[in-house]
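Example 274.
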Amino acid sequence: EWSSQPEVTAAHPPKNAAGDGDRRPISTVLIIIAMQTEALPLVNKFHLSEDIDGSLFPKGVPWVRYHGIYKELHINLVWTGKDSILAGVDSIGTISASLVSYASIQALKPDLIINAGTAGGFKAKGACVADVYLVSNVAFHDRRIPIHVIFFCVNYLYGIGARQTFSTPNLIDELNLKVGKLSTGDSLDMSPQDEVLILANDAVVKDMEGAAVAYVADLLSVPAIFIKAVTNTVDGQKSIAEEFLQNLIAVCTTLAQTVSQVVDFISGVYQIIG
Ligand code: ADE
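Predicted structure in complex with adenine:
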């Protein structure tokens, strides 16, 4: 449970993950990933093994859990798996991400969630291919509910689902990460209407899972951070799909490096969960 006294588990005792609040060492980390290409470099880096007994999730679901101990942390990496019918296609998007988040939190009781993945970036806001962002805020851009009751736009706000992520100023300082807002929707491309809402969300990166993972993490009161690596820009001349496929493998290597630095940081410091 929460301890009011800091526990000395750390290589860098004076630093905290968050800045203030209660202190509790993180022991179990849940990494949620949507694509196999994003997952495998991390499975290798942390020497994780696949859960073959399969009892964690309901029979028949494609979700895959890898696990292992790395620097005294219990690392669980859950990949949403390949679609059950369309073999070979990763289960990307908000539905699978929400379901996997819910089931994994229930089963594993993690102290921290890391949602890691690729994202599209806005050149106009400074994003470049291969940049890795730590996300400060998430919101949706494809859930439009324009019902206003008198002057209140609560339905609209519910659709946007904006929330702040778990605050980690020391992590940002230590790893010198780019920080920005993320907008989530169930499409890889960007319709003109999506673009308006993404810009209204002030997002620098867009993905297909983040805000859904954040919603479930909030529901179940688990701190969550979001690490998103840019495979393509969305406001340039190039085709999003082409650029995405061209850069995917290289950017996933960069993503894995950053995630492992984050995990190294977590393993080496006092943890604060507010
Ligand atoms: N992941 C990588 N590129 C993306 C994009 N353009 N939109 C949503 N998710 C992405």
